[in-house]
Amino acid sequence: MVPRMQLFLLVIFIQAFVMEASTNPEDYSALQALKNEWENVPPNWVGPDPCGSRWEGILCINSRIMSISLPSFGLSGGLSGDISSLSELQILDLSYNQRLTGSLPDGIGKLEKLTILILVGCGFSGSIPKSIGSLKWLVTLSLNSNKFIGPIPHSIGNLSNLSWLDLADNKLSGSIPVSSGSEPGLDMLLHTKHFHFGKNQLSGEIPSQLFTANMSLIHLLLENNNLTGEIPATLGLANNLEVVRLDRNSLSGSVPQNLSTLGHVHALFLSNNYLNGPLPDLTGMISLNYLDMSNNTFDASDVPPLSTLQSLTTLVMEKTQLQGQVPEALFSLPQLQSVILRNNQLNGTLNIGTSYSHDLRLVDLQNNSIESFTENAGGFSMQIILVKNPFCQEATESYCFLPRQANSSDSTSSNCSNQCRSDQVSSPNCRCAYPYTGTLVFRAPSFSDLGNLSAYVPLQQNLMLSFLSHQLPVDSVSLSNPSKNRYDYLTLNLQIFPYGQDYFNRTGISGIGFVLSNQTFKPPKPFGPFFYIANEYQRFSGTPSGSNNSSSTAIIIGAAVGGSVLLLLLLLAGGYAFRQKKRAEIANKQNDPFASWDRSKHSGGVPQLKGARHFSFEEVKKYTNNFSETNDIGSGGYGKVYKGTLPSGQLVAIKRAQQGSMQGAPEFKTEIELLSRVHHKNVVGLLGFCFDQGEEMLMYEYVPNGSLKDSLSGKSGIRLDWMRRLRIAIGAARGLQYLHVLADPPIIHRDVKSNNVLLDVRLNAKVADFGLSKPMGSPDRTHVTTQVKGTMGYMDPEYYMTQQLTEKSDVYSFGVLLLELITAKAPIEKGKYIVREVKQAMDKTKELYNLHELIDPVIVSSITPKSLEKFVDLALSCVEEQGAQRPTMSEVVKEIESCMELAGLNPNAESASTSESYEGVPKGYEHPYSDDSLFVYSGAYPQSKVQPK
């Protein structure tokens, strides 16, 4: 009787719930289509009334959906074209959902009332639809940090209300569109304050008609593209400009002298172009804080007069043909922090004087012709670098040696004595919590003293004020690890701590994400334009904040209806389970492959596996024909590798540890733990293992074409042309990117080298050998402090010196591997280090960077010069001595894709049908699974050693 009454009440409740539904039916259908397209939607997205049930991230007014804001929710899938039915939608923010992929539907142009469209840090690709130009009320358009390709649509010029336009960090190509005839262009966006187009593949000249005197533009960011031609003189008309970044392009000609009239500009980047002619007169830029004109071919000139630039903090003029003596007056500019004039022809006596700026921290004049140095009796408080000047030929002072790089782990957090759980973090207010984390990236900071923590206090305060003013549940924020990356962006790790409990709910994350993605937060002036890349927030409360009492009641009634049946089933099953308990325990012990795992042999706790199959010794013995010599395909310090055949006919490679090997147990454990949870087409797959009868064996998929090293050395007989090497590079890079970004937990390989990149039957690259790998554990960790291990020649010098292992250590090793692909030379060959050899021979003014003697003759006939030069640039950026200056593996993947496109290759196309099209394997050649490449190092480095160069 009771269950019938419960069921009756449930039916009555459901009827009442449906009758009260208030969401517009067309809006509900559109949102339901989005829900069906996505995975990981909020758990309270149930029922037919998103508005009445207050679905997380959905804001309604009068039954119509006005806003969808779901940043950092871990959504995956695509953006359905059904979104076009949300005719009243004004805000769409799906930022920081990296697994949202696919193209933007053309129907997005039907959202005629949309004012804010923000898709920062997702995985969208394809072309930006032309229909986006129909969103006439759009104020903010942020599509940065995705994978968009193709041209910038001309139709964006129709968005007359647009204030913020950010298309940076994509793969956009073509020219900057301007109006022509009836076709609109960006020159029509007179009210737009932000043109952010950096880190794309835009080409052609910067159109002169883009700039006019009546435009509102304050930020012009065109860095790191393929723009050519001269800087248009019309740029001097845009008198509201505050930040100008034209660096890292191929601009040429003279700098327009009328730039001096831009009195509001506080950051000017012109570096890494082909600018020539006289040095520009910038004395009228009285607000200028940061000036970088490095790596151009200006006419030989003295250091220009800068006495009017009283706000200047940073002067960078490396390799700009400067000559003569450095004027003493330069150092007395009141706010000066850094003077970097290395690689010029400066000479005479260096005299910093006694009235230099109290903020001065760095004077870098290395590689000039300075003959003498006037020292003060009390010394200097700043760092002075005079390496490779005549003065230092016999001097022994500290400024005649390159300073050792200090680790950057500065933080605005307080030091707390409280002990938090391993998965929690102590806040600046000494509360243990699960913070919302990410990276703040400032594209044009106008200061250079990154180590001055007091500079970040106003930023921290502004962040808190912004969150509190929007009534967000934030207790405190912490900023840490300030560093400059290779694009001269300032990066800061950000941790945001919850108020009142130890985690954020989804509403809190949505609000915080929107404040940062929508640029509601305005940083203090020295930091300049920014963007935020968030980490997915893993810790949400058990009960969504948007669920109401009605839905909770429905859940309770539903549970009650089934409760009686469930209880009866449990009682029936309980007796059977109890009788089977003893029997099951015995069976588990018999089947447990680690029942005899010996923790005393430096092997640690029992391995924790996810899905790897266990094979008995007898099974493996059968698969390898009793480990016959004919199946022996390699050997190394760990043991031997055998080819085996499973009953299904599948070929496998079986790595068998030597008996009594002390290093085998931890390496064995590492590989099976890590590889059992990674699955990627560019990572060698672990099929199973054997831990039986004192044996330790790992069973991998068989990769038939050996290692990359064997092919480069000619041992395998496979001839790799330039196109094939690009495909191998992208495959290996994607494998490492997966380990760093998508593996759970992230993994640092620690032994990236050509011997550990295997080639399958189609010559696709697969990263192998995880014996030295280290999991990062918590996503908040920036490094792992560990004993130094790896292979000499590939090893990161920063890791070598500090014993702090980071993902950037893999990036360094991968950079060496890229140079190996170009030269086919071992990293250390006859006492010569390939990184140093390339740097010394390199000359960017000559064809193929003057590397003809180092390039492998095998690829000379197939090279496309631009792709090789870009490839060399990437490799050298990977082997920067400081990890902070190296790209991430995700950035490396993008750069290799660009190299492939320059070579006429589709980065996503399949490889060759088989390796036979690249010449046959020599007779008698077998797959060489060996570990004996170069000098494998395993131990702590003495501090007296010189880091490898």
Question: What can you see in these coordinates?
Answer:
It is globular and about 85 Å long. By secondary structure, the protein is α/β, with parallel strands linked by helices. The chain folds into four domains: 22-296 and 305-312, Ribonuclease Inhibitor (Leucine-rich repeat, LRR (right-handed beta-alpha superhelix)); 425-534, Alpha-Beta Plaits (2-Layer Sandwich), CATH 3.30.70; 568-702, Phosphorylase Kinase, domain 1, CATH 3.30.200.20; 708-938, Orthogonal Bundle (Transferase(Phosphotransferase), domain 1). A hairpin with a 3-residue loop joins strand 36 and strand 37 (639-645). Residues 1-21, 541-566, 581-607 and 913-949 have low confidence and may be disordered. 21% of the residues lie in helices and 21% in strands. The strands form eleven sheets. The protein has a 15-stranded mixed sheet. Helix 1 (2-19) crosses helix 5 (549-591).
Short description:
The protein has 949 residues and is an alpha/beta fold. It has 14 helices and 50 strands.
Give me the secondary-structure topology.
Blueprint: H1 2-19, H2 25-37, E1 58-61, E2 64-69, E3 76-77, E4 91-93, E5 99-102, E6 116-118, E7 123-127, E8 140-142, E9 147-150, E10 164-166, E11 171-174, E12 194-196, E13 201-205, E14 219-221, E15 226-229, E16 243-245, E17 250-253, E18 267-269, E19 274-275, E20 290-292, E21 301-302, E22 314-316, E23 322-324, E24 338-340, E25 345-351, E26 362-364, E27 369-374, E28 383-385, E29 425-426, E30 432-433, E31 436-442, H3 457-469, E32 474-484, E33 490-498, H4 506-517, E34 530-534, H5 549-591, E35 613-614, H6 617-623, E36 632-635, E37 639-645, E38 651-657, H7 664-675, E39 686-692, E40 695-701, H8 708-713, H9 722-742, E41 747-748, E42 757-759, E43 765-767, E44 774-775, E45 784-785, E46 789-791, H10 797-802, E47 804-805, H11 807-823, E48 828-829, E49 832-833, H12 834-841, H13 865-878, H14 889-902, E50 936-938
Parallel strand pairs: 2-4, 3-5, 4-6, 5-7, 6-8, 7-9, 8-10, 9-11, 10-12, 11-13, 12-14, 13-15, 14-16, 15-17, 16-18, 17-19, 18-20, 20-22, 21-23, 22-24, 23-25, 24-26, 25-27, 26-28, 35-39
Antiparallel strand pairs: 1-2, 29-30, 31-33, 31-34, 32-33, 36-37, 37-38, 38-40, 39-40, 41-44, 42-43, 45-47, 46-50, 48-49
Membrane topology: Single-pass type I membrane protein
Protein name: non-specific serine/threonine protein kinase
Domain Protein kinase: 627-900
